[in-house]
Design brief:
With 429 residues, this protein is mainly α. It contains 15 helices and no strands.
Length: 429
């Protein structure tokens, strides 16, 4: 096996392990909704308290995202990945033994710390192994972690709870975390020796954390990510309930099954769109986000307005393509919004803060409109937000951090030379 073949094999093995780590942590995040009725009955709590089991998770993701990018420079991707998975495994195991609601809530805090860190580590380590022009497909694989977890939990969560209570879901996620942790410890590494590191940064002693906040493009893309999670979690929280009421005579199990099918379709779609990204110049990749948001606007506007059952299947097939285009775009682009490669982790951390804010705001705001103005009215803020996302994506700028030999076009080389000259002039001021 040649050096290049070995590096490629190792890189893709790490992508798979990073995906499994993301799947485990996303499963921890998404394990409450499929068994929320069982949890509420067991602890004698209402919808508001139950909602905190998800909210506190999101809040911890916001708090830990930026510190994780700082720790990444000092401890390395492998150690942070192991720590994040260990936090989630410990939280799941402790949660399964809880007899009081406050105890369960505390374990969700521990789990949330893990998710906040893995969301930074996964894209960062992929960036180390793949140059910018080759990141589309691996980032597409990585970006499917959330949809894959939703598919698995909606399919199996109810059955696990029926046989072993809500604790069965907790132990299932615990096993996923342990498997991913072992693989991280065993196989994940950063490029070394004569293998290129495409996100190689400065010596940690010369790393200035604050410099990573100076890319305006990172902040624009972060707002785009915030808007996306606001829309998709506002949609995802209530779509099963809407379908149950509109199409299935109140049968949530049947509605959940169709939701699972929809997210199952989205997994290969996101991977396919990642492959497409590999064939688009870095500077033009923002247009996938622009087009994705523009088309997403239309389907969001009609998502809670469908009354004809004949529209359900076309919606389930079309929605994954429109929703999947947006995270594929921002996960692929976010490392390249950093002005220097050593600050890619900071850019990823900033993005994850935005993603968690959107996740936190989307469900309650959408629910407010549903409760006070009806289902149709709830589509208006979602559609308006999506339009704003399409406009903002136009202004996302990327920086060339270096490519594999011979991969840059003369135009891209000229852009990189101009960019380096500009950064050098700024540093000299």
């Amino acid at each position: 096996m040649t050096r290049k073949q070995k590096a490629t094999t190792t890189a893709w093995l790490i992508v798979i392990i990073a995906f499994l780590g993301g799947l485990a942590l996303a499963s921890a995040q998404n394990k409450v909704p499929p068994v929320i009725d069982v949890v509420m009955a067991d602890f004698g709590i209402g919808e508001t308290d139950a909602g905190w089991l998800t909210s506190v998770f999101t809040i911890m993701g916001m708090i830990t995202a930026l510190p994780a990018s700082w720790l990444l420079q000092r401890l390395g991707a492998k150690k942070i990945g192991v720590i994040s998975l260990a936090c989630c495994a410990i939280g799941c195991a402790l949660g399964a033994f809880c007899t009081e609601f406050w105890m369960l809530l505390a374990t969700r805090v521990i789990e949330g710390v893990g998710v906040g860190m893995i969301a930074v580590v996964g894209p960062a380590i992929i960036s180390m192994w793949f140059p910018a022009e080759k990141r589309g497909l691996p980032m597409g694989v990585w970006g499917s972690w959330m949809m894959a977890s939703q598919t698995i939990l909606f399919f199996f969560g109810g059955g696990l709870a029926a046989n072993w209570g809500w604790q069965g879901v907790w132990w299932f996620v615990f096993i996923l975390c342990v498997i991913a942790l072992v693989l991280y410890q065993w196989k994940v590494k950063e490029p070394d020796g004569d293998m290129p590191n495409y996100a190689e940064g400065e010596d940690p002693e010369e790393f200035h954390f604050g410099e990573g906040f100076k890319s305006g493009s990172t902040w624009v893309l972060t707002v785009c990510g915030l808007i996306f999670t606001f829309c998709c979690f506002g949609f995802a929280t209530y779509i099963s309930l809407y379908w149950a009421q509109e199409f299935f005579a109140g049968d949530m199990n049947q509605s959940n099954w169709w939701v699972s099918v929809m997210y199952a379709i989205e997994v290969p779609v996101v991977i396919l769109l990642g492959w497409v990204m590999n064939h688009i110049k870095l500077g033009n990749r923002r247009f996938m986000g622009v087009i994705g948001f523009a088309l997403y606007t239309f389907i969001l506007f009609f998502c809670f307005r469908m009354e004809d059952p004949a529209l359900l299947l076309p919606f389930i097939i079309i929605y994954p393509f429109l929703e999947g285009a947006i995270p594929t775009a921002y996960w692929t682009m976010i490392p390249s919004t950093a002005k220097k490669p050593e600050y890619a982790g900071t850019s990823i951390g900033i993005l994850n803060v935005g993603l968690n804010i959107g996740t936190l705001l989307g469900p309650p705001i959408t629910g407010f409109f549903i409760e006070n103005y009806g289902w149709a009215a709830a589509t208006v803020p979602l559609a308006i937000a999506s339009v704003v996302g399409a406009v903002l994506f136009v202004f996302v700028k990327t920086y060339y951090h270096g490519h594999s030999e011979g991969s840059m076009t003369p135009e891209e080389q000229a852009i990189m030379d101009e960019q380096q000259a500009k950064l050098a002039a700024e540093a000299a001021k």
